[in-house]
Model the fold of this input.
Amino acid sequence: AEKKVETELTMEALESKLADLKKEQMNQRFQHAAGQMPKTHVMRQTRREIARVKTKLKEKVKLNLKNFSMW
Done:
């Protein structure tokens, strides 16, 4: 039941997704603080999805550096 980040996404797509998730997380924090969020587990899911996207970005950066430095 886990959402997996697509491995085929480009760096730009991952960065865009990360920005969207961060905005969503901010909105969820405001809703939670105002007591308007009945499903608080969604905050945890968003936080973990952000971590997955960051991990994929890091892997791509590492891969690009590895490919670039091979002379």
User: Anything to note?
Assistant: The first helix runs from residue 11 to 33. The radius of gyration is 15 Å.
